[in-house]
Write a structure and sequence with these properties.
Strand content of chain A: 15-25%
Distance between the termini of chain A: 40 Å
Shape of chain A: globular
CATH topology of the largest domain in chain A: Dihydrodipicolinate Reductase, domain 2
CATH superfamily of the largest domain in chain A: Dihydrodipicolinate Reductase, domain 2
Largest interface: A-B, 51 and 52 residues
Number of helices of chain A: 11
Helix content of chain A: 25-40%
Number of strands of chain A: 15
Oligomer: homodimer
Order of helices and strands of chain A: EHEHEHEHEHEHEHHHEEEEEEEHHE
Radius of gyration of chain A: 20 Å
Chain lengths: 335, 335
């Protein structure tokens, strides 16, 4: 099972975290991505060589696919090429593990979804937070009925801004803060409710972005889902540098029989049994979960339907924020 | 300084908490409110008699105002009469301490605001949470620059539902969950940002309201304010009966230089100095703050402009939720 890897703009590290769980995998080739992209390849090349001694380095991703004809491909940008590379991989019958968002425009997303439908491959987005022990435990408790039917979800993503690379500062190479940071929050909403999105209203702002060009540093999204389930996402890059962690990831899920809150260090459940902290664990890791689906057909924690639905929700939320209006998910005319 | 009191549908108790702080006040009369209202008057009458021995009891609030000609009036429903009673009090030159929402419709609110403009009286809504030691401390820290300029506010109000009285089950006697429960969250947003509201999008749902008629048990509101400040409010009645408290009140304020979270038991600030818990205190109480403004002209923590702006924001949010569309605050045509 040969694996090729493209790009360092995101979570390629997920591959190295668990590639050893699937001994059949050989890393055949690595590449930074687009022509003219001068990203430093060493964060890919060094750990790839530690895993597979005969890794080839390419400067062009198409040449890499021609030369290696891999079983699997990991894609982590350049983000504006994610959809193009996905489509090419699908056409070649290559299974894809892709950084979110898997497309930066709705047209690219549609094209990607059509190409996927014509292929017989697996696709997983790099939504690593589903595999975090706390968030995974929370989801499992909800699925096991700990809070009854989900009626309301609040989510938060808050990051330190720091000094970001140039590609973050332009919509056409970054995609926007709702798709890039907010994707996790939107994925949680989809995952925790298990319902289809119906409408979104969102807002975002570049104010106080400390000379980061087009990068939005605050955003809020409000979704309605089937059966009048409501959900909110608060997104910002304003977490202080002196904060105890880079991110402040959190969700709260309100059900007919209880309320659950989860962060990356704690899960608290309140229901008829009173208040309790849940012991957290997750026995899966995101890349090997993807690879074991490819190898054995094992049901993964996240798959293609999630990748497409969440990317669509993020891009419609971004459009809502750009245009200041409510967008219906079912109304194709809205585009 | 004679005080009359109408109604038990809300926080009349605030009066008794601090009426002793202003020794000049005599409670002259009490009344349950509207004709045909069969509310039990004892929660008003008993503590009123403990304070003032010669309290008169009335079955009709107009007769009470005629007979007592009070300096001040406390109004706590019936909620659908709040605006009518306010208007009559303003016309008579009586200072008003009123349960929120001070009006259940925009027309009533407009009429109330016009009557107030023609009068020379003080008005304060019963927004007791501004006087909570933790929320007050949070607001003061923000006003003193602890987090720089406010860019994003998240708020939450979550209550146990229990078994509610009949008036909660009808929009025309309750007003809806966004104005009734959400008013506090909307008030926090206005208070913490100090900015005018520009747009709102809201949603609410009656699903899972356990036979409570028209009462909405989940709601979400998203506001934009001047200078691209964003704010969210999450509102629900789904807090489990076995929860450690009746309510789960909370807000989070994200600024250019820090983040602050406050609940009714803790205030946490993260800024350039790292993370710290703030010692909480408030040296004012809501009713005496109102009465001392009347007596001495002392600047109160909440006043008429807040009462009108927050009620308007709540009623526009409710309209947005009813109609499923974004509402602009400046566009009078929207009504």
């Amino acid at each position: 099972m040969d694996l090729c890897m493209i790009g360092i703009r995101g979570h390629s590290g997920y591959v190295f975290d668990s590639v050893a769980d699937v001994p059949e995998i050989r890393i055949a080739g690595v590449c930074v991505g687009g022509s003219g992209c001068d990203d430093d390849l060493s964060p890919l090349e060094t750990p790839a060589r530690e895993h597979s001694t005969d890794v080839q380095v390419f400067s062009n991703w198409q040449e890499m696919l021609d030369a290696c004809n891999p079983t699997m491909l990991s894609i982590a940008g350049p983000l504006e090429l994610n959809a193009t590379i996905c489509i090419e991989a699908f056409k070649r019958g290559i299974h894809v593990f892709c950084e979110k968002p898997i497309a930066l425009t709705l047209d690219e997303l549609d094209a990607s979804e059509r190409a996927f439908a014509d292929a017989d491959v697996h696709l997983a987005p790099m939504m690593g937070l589903r595999y975090d022990p706390h968030f995974y435990t929370a989801w499992k408790a909800i699925r096991n009925g700990a809070i009854g039917d989900v009626r309301l979800v609040n989510t938060r993503k808050s990051y330190r801004l720091g000094e970001r690379a140039e590609f973050y500062r332009h919509r056409d190479t970054y995609g926007g803060t709702i798709p890039w940071v907010g994707a996790h929050a939107v994925d949680w909403i989809s995952w925790l409710t298990g319902k289809p999105f119906e409408t979104v209203f969102a807002s975002h702002s570049r104010c106080a972005n400390r000379d980061h060009g087009e990068l939005e540093v605050s955003a809020a999204c409000q979704f309605t889902l089937a059966d009048e389930v409501l959900a909110t996402a608060s997104i910002d890059y304003l977490r202080p540098e002196a904060a105890p962690s880079h991110g402040d990831d959190w969700f709260r899920v309100v059900g007919t029989e209880g309320v659950l809150e989860a962060s990356d260090h704690c899960v608290t459940l309140i229901n008829a049994d009173g208040e309790q902290e849940l012991a957290s664990a997750c026995d899966r890791r995101i890349f090997s979960d993807f690879a074991l689906c490819v190898r054995d057909g094992r049901e993964p924690l996240i798959g293609p339907a999630d990748a497409f639905a969440v990317t669509r929700a993020c891009l419609l939320a971004r459009q809502s924020a750009d245009e200041g209006r409510v967008i219906q998910f079912t109304d194709e005319d809205e585009r």
